[in-house]
Amino acid sequence: MSHDYIVIGAGVHGSAASYYLAKSGASVLLLEAKTVASGASGGVGKRGVRANARDIRELPLMKIAYDMWPGINEELGLKVGYERTGGIELVGPDVFADKSLHDQLKTRVGVQSAFGIETRIIDKAELDTLEPGASAETVAGALYCPADGTGDHTEVTRGYAAAAQAAGAELKENTPVTGITGKNADGLYTVTAEDGTVHTATRGVLVTANSYSRRLLADSFGIDVPITRFNPQMTPVRAAGGFTFKHLLGHHSLPFAAKTITIDGEDMVMLSGGRTGDWDYESETGTPRPETAEKSIIDATSIYPAFAGAEVVVTDASRPESLTVDDIPVIDEVPGNPGVFFATGWSGHGFAISPAVATLLAGWITSGERPAELEPFTFARFPQVSQA
Question: Of 347, 338, 373, 348, which is closest to residue 358 (Cα–Cα)?
Answer without folding.
Answer: 373
